[in-house]
Automatic annotation (TrEMBL), chains A, B:
Entry-linked InterPro entries: Aromatic_deC, PyrdxlP-dep_de-COase, PyrdxlP-dep_Trfase, PyrdxlP-dep_Trfase_major, PyrdxlP-dep_Trfase_small, Pyridoxal-P_BS
EC code: 4.1.1.28
Assembly with partners or alone: Homodimer.
Entry cofactors: pyridoxal 5'-phosphate
GO terms for cellular component: cytoplasm
Entry-linked Gene3D superfamilies: Aspartate Aminotransferase, domain 1, dopa decarboxylase, N-terminal domain, Type I PLP-dependent aspartate aminotransferase-like (Major domain)
Biological process (GO), any one: amino acid metabolic process
Protein name in UniProt: Aromatic-L-amino-acid decarboxylase
Enzyme class name: lyase
One example GO MF annotation: pyridoxal phosphate binding
Encoding gene (name): LOC110512870
């Protein structure tokens, strides 16, 4: 396919996409296929000779669409939203065409620089403390990660490195393995499963802090304080706490001011790193009325949310800020001798990196002179972190797309007001759904409705609610997923699609009540 | 922007992209900007009210393009290629519009299933042993990772988990920290820096195996064997070896058959996991004449290359296969009680996962009943891995785009033959460049030219070569990066753009020789 054919096929694809999104309501939101459905629909091997483009396009409806869960249907209320906007799609097309791999400033200066400035724009929209803004001289700043899971892990790795270094600084004779095996991290029992998984990857203990319905599933400062004290008494070293703003099950909010007072003070051998995961809720903080939920951010070392969830910037765009870039840079830094040579030898190619938050992959570094004796410790061999050198890796992948173009297009085409309107519309629709539930005596609301998520259930057994949900999803007209809150099976109704309107909410509610009636008639109470 | 406006703007963007790529030769390949250039060109904050689309588009030329390194210019010979093809761009547009997040089968069955089948297609194109093909009953299979760095890390984490479990199985009383602190991994001193970084992230020793110019920078079996023996004698536990096929500096190849005999036998307490990183070279193995470079793959536990480098599938698409899915699944698995409940409770929502290689994020799992007492060990609390259950996480991020659409479009629109032709054309052009260099007595070739990379230098000092490279890049007509091989400063000429032709090679060579003449006249020998 050459550029001439691409002009034609690209325009057809634009129409196909517009048709798909304009008519998405008419599709079954949740696909009716069995596992393994696709394999039998296509050949077992790639073709030797090219297929025609017409055949490929035909197969979109024949092979792909029957197995698609339509996340952007206004009848999709499962999980949390993922963004889908036209400006973001246009920017992504451009990003694909430029197709640079932004692992260093030199690899495409615009890619690194636009990201730094867009993260500042967004940080200002969120009214983040000055500490988190890179500006031209700040010590903090933002970077785009792929997902919140990556951000949680990166923060944990940086915290691990900082803790080990602080302890080694005060007690240089202490064996390192004796330190890492004593480290302990904390998160809410409501935290996303990726937080626990980050602990597994980093090889450190991760303790779950129990929460209660009566506390609205928020971690209590007193509980955290007690756990820390007990662990300290048992000889462990608390070093990391992941707070959640807007949990996955019920959109609960930890009180980070209270928790900051627990984790902040230098009562402990190593200061505790507070990371804030606001994956879903973070977008709402651009509205002044929701910004108080972020109060206490000044106690955090790092903060992350997924602009690709609720801020109209298509996946992936997980926005992360840190207060001190050097904390992160240090965690991924190599042997200083090796570094020194890198800097010296590739200076002409790589130049200076204006944003140390962007990983600068010196892909040629393995060939630079270094001692053949391996460094066996990532901690002892490190010099103190130096910002603005050429080797600041601090994300898991080294390659990266030109993702900030999506932020730039979206912020400019919506404007701050347009984005705020969008958030508010979803919250209003959630409130509307909440009032429909509350008006029906057979149902109950299971958690405060703060943003765009409504947790509700039939008054009665878990069984009746499980049956109801199964009936809803098997009907395939709307799609919801459940959660368990304090042992109760709960239905989650999350506002997801950009195009959801009041009529969709009412239609969904009508369907739910109709199915509830059937279920209640069938099942014994 | 609504669908109607998107139809118009999308078509304009298609033309903009086609114009950009058709005329890319006329742009300066390597941008002439200073660090920080972009910040002053745009406002300090996002606009309150929307900008016009015309203004946004105008800014592409005003703000972005001056800072872009044009990776797809036929004058770009730096790093390694990154893919850029029209079919991949069309597929990516569709992927963006569908915009599903494929963290589970249910979240979009087509996304999970097409990926499994496309990885089988590609595995067959590479003639991978049957062990690595998922098929309908295989124990192995493939998955798309974001980058080779992620694949290296995932393999390392799986190896760490397997080693600890094997040792615990034979010696249950042994303290775990005593195991992990003794683990030792190996890679070539020519390996990509991300391998060393994976060791830092996982918190294990990573030793570099020295290589020699006389061995063509390949790791020698004898060297690896000796290091393993010495480490064992010192009480360490060798558990992971990362072989490289096509190193970043000089495209050198480890002899994996020889190394497999070293790392394979169960001579050691824990079997050594062999991971093969063929990030760049892997694409060439679809040609029968290059496939022998992969001989010995049967000894590997995991294998990875970047289809997004040289196989015309736009970034990101890093293709990874494993022989035993259960090894990977186990590495990210949670507490079995918790798992059991997940499986039970969300079965109706998530159904069975036909491909355990695709991470199934039970985003609701944290709310399911589990003991509040935290599990402190990822190893002891695990039951033996069970394939085909609903909780097989095995990549770092949980969310994922519908990336297999790009593979599907590219494989079908090029056909296997078209892809082979493309690889062969680049190799031929590299050979042509090599012969130009060899015909000039002032220059020398620094490493065997096997695929699309030519390492060369002026006979003489490092200084003269550094000066030459600086002159080349400052001229901005072509773009190259250097490497050091055995202490010698070497210029790397990598075939990168899809549209590079013989005339570009000759033009580049003419420029290089002209600048070399200048440099040699200026500098004292």
């Amino acid at each position: 396919m050459d550029a001439t054919e691409f002009r034609r096929r690209g325009k057809e694809m634009v129409d196909l996409i517009a048709d798909y999104l304009e008519n998405i309501e008419q599709r079954t939101v949740y696909p009716d296929v069995e596992p393994g459905y696709l394999r039998s629909l296509i050949p077992e091997e790639a073709p030797e000779e090219p297929d025609t483009y017409e055949d490929v396009v035909k197969d979109i409806e024949r092979v792909i669409m029957p197995g698609v869960t339509h996340w952007h249907s206004p009848y999709f209320y499962a999980y949390f939203p993922t963004a889908n906007s036209f400006p973001a799609m246009l920017a992504d097309m451009l990003s694909g065409a430029i197709g640079c791999i932004g692992f260093s400033w030199a690899a495409s200066p615009a890619c690194t620089e636009l990201e730094t400035v867009m993260m500042d724009w967004l940080g200002k929209m969120l009214k983040l403390p000055e500490d988190f803004i890179a500006g031209t001289h700040g010590q903090g700043g933002g970077v785009i990660q792929g997902t919140a899971s990556e951000a949680t892990l990166v923060a944990l790795l940086a915290a691990r490195c900082r803790a080990v270094r602080m302890i080694l600084a005060s007690d240089p004779q202490r064996p390192e393995t004796g330190i890492t095996s004593k480290l302990v991290a904390y998160s809410s029992d409501q935290a996303h499963c990726s937080v626990e998984r980050a602990g597994m990857i980093a090889g450190v203990r991760m303790k779950k802090i129990p929460t209660e319905q009566s506390d609205k599933y928020a971690v209590q400062g007193e509980t955290l304080r007690r756990m820390i004290q007990e662990d300290k008494a048992a000889g462990l070293i608390p070093f990391y706490f992941c707070a959640t703003l807007g949990t996955t099950p019920s959109c609960a909010f930890d009180h980070i001011t209270e928790l900051g007072h627990v984790s902040g003070p230098a009562l402990y051998v190593s200061k505790i790193w507070m990371h804030i995961d606001a994956a879903y809720a973070g977008s709402s903080f651009i509205c002044p009325e929701f910004r108080p939920l972020l109060n206490g951010i000044e106690f955090a070392d790092s903060f992350n949310f997924n602009a690709h969830k609720w801020l109209l910037v298509n996946f992936d765009c997980s926005t992360m800020w840190v207060k001190k870039r050097s904390d992160l840079i240090g965690a991924f830094k190599m042997d200083p001798l090796y570094l020194k040579h890198d800097h010296q030898d590739v200076h002409s190619v790589c130049s200076t990196n204006p944003n140390p938050l962007i990983p600068l992959c010196l892909i040629l570094s393995p060939t630079l002179p270094h001692p053949t004796a391996p460094s066996t410790s990532p901690y002892r061999t490190l010099s103190p972190p130096v910002p603005h050198t050429t080797s600041q890796h601090w994300q898991i992948p080294l390659g990266r797309r030109f993702r900030s173009l999506k932020m730039w297009f979206v912020f400019r085409m919506y404007g701050l007001k347009g984005l705020q309107d969008y958030i508010r519309k979803h919250v209003e629709l959630a409130k509307e759904f909440e009032s429909l539930v509350r008006a029906d005596q057979r149902f109950e609301i299971s958690a405060d409705v703060v943003l765009g998520l409504v947790c509700f259930r039939l008054k009665g057994s878990n069984e009746v609610n499980e049956t109801l949900l199964k009936r809803i999803n098997n009907g395939r007209k709307i799609h919801l997923v459940p959660c368990l809150l304090s042992g109760q099976f709960v239905l989650r109704f999350a506002l997801c699609a950009r195009t959801t309107e009041s009529r969709h909410i009412r239609e969904a509610w009508q369907l739910i009540t109709q199915l509830a009636e059937e279920v209640m008639q069938e099942l014994p109470h």
